[in-house]
Amino acid sequence: MNLPLETVPEPSAFQLWLVQLWEGTLAWLLAAGENVIHVVLTVVICVVIAFVLRLLIRRIVHRIVDRAKSKANVDDTQALERSPLADMRLVQRTRTLGTILQNIVNVAVAIVALVLITNRLAPDLVGSLTLLTAAIGAGLGFGAQNIVKDVLNGLFIVAEDQIGIGDMVDMGLATGVVEYVAVRITHVRDVNGTLWYVRNGEVTRIGNMSQGWARAIVDIGVPVDADVPAVEAALLEAAQGLAKDNKWRTRIIERPEVWGLESMSGEALVIRVVMKTRATAMDDVARELRMRLKDAVEKLDLAVPSLESVIPDGVAGARRVRGANPPRTRPNAVTGVPPAARGIWRKKNPKQQPEPPEETE
Questions:
Q1: What is the 3-state secondary structure of 308-358?
Q2: Contact, 221 vs 268, CB < 8 A?
Q3: How far apart are the C-alpha atoms of 197 and 207, rounded to whole Å?
Q4: Under a CB-based contact definition with an 8 Å cutoff, are residues 239 and 252 in contact?
């Protein structure tokens, strides 16, 4: 006996719509979940990469700084001022470059993360972003030339160690102490406390007064009837006493010199005394030197018509770089005189030639 098969009623249109709605919602939730997971993973990976790169840069900077400190046998960076200047410059340049590299890492990782997220959420938008980037690049090439110039010039300024934080500089546009160096601008604080923002692209020359050494130059006037050699000896003795002082000898590089009679007039004879110092200690040494020179002249019962520090510039400054020690050169050969023979081919003096031995029968 055959039993009748149960017939399944066909779903209604409303039920089909509900099923399609549920399947569409589920597919959208799955796609959204995948996108969210992808975005979160992208952000996390970029943050981790940025953290690792920043940590690596920081470790390299600390290692270089610690090596400079251990080489100079100091514990504080400020104490490097008494150590060789190259160590202090190395620390400043390393820290500045480390800050710039960290900023570059932050910007690069942020851009990469933005592109990856955009590629995941809206793949068609990446092509538009490419065209937009090309348009922005063309716009920067024409309208933002100054920014590009500032950044490139700033990178060369830092990489070539032209200036560093704490340097006393003359940048043409501003003169003072460098407080901050970036790839686009440099902060310079002048003696009045004004903070100048100098664009690196506008800097055409830099005078760094903190690198290498400095020279304290003091012109002291004495009466026209003074004994110049005796005055020079007294001034040199006073300057040498300053150089031997325990408080000042670490700031003085070379022995002081008396360059002699610089100028004379109807009122005074001007004698110049110079002392080579560390770049950061020139002003302090010059003040103490002026005081000791004044006392030395007064001990000779002489009046001091004038006493001032001078900074030769221009042609005068270029001629006086060597000061009282001009470079030694070989004399020019005199025409018509044969050069003297040297070595084993030099002729013997006939007066010094030994007499021939006497003949014996």
A1: EECCCCHHHHHHCCCCCCCCCCCCCCCCCCCCCCCHHHCCCCHHHCCCCCC
A2: yes
A3: 17
A4: no
- For 204, half-sphere exposure in the C-beta direction (CA atoms, 13 angstrom radius) is 2
Ranges of residues in the chain whose predicted pLDDT is under 50: 5, 79-85, 324, 326-347, 350, 352, 359-361
| 204-213 confidence digits (pLDDT tens) | 889 888 877 8
122: CB partners within 8 A, 6+ apart: none
Strand partners for 196: 188
Q: Which residues of 262-289 are buried (b: 16+ CB within 10 A; e: fewer)?
A: eeeeeebbbbbbbbbbbbbbbeebbebb
- Max alpha carbon distance in the chain (Å)? 171
Q: How far apart are CA 182 and CA 164, in angstroms?
A: 10
Q: How many CB atoms lie within 10 A of CB 169?
A: 23
Q: Which residue has the tokens 């770049």?
A: 279
Query: For residues 300 and 64, what is the distance between their CA atoms, to the nearest angstrom?
Result: 53
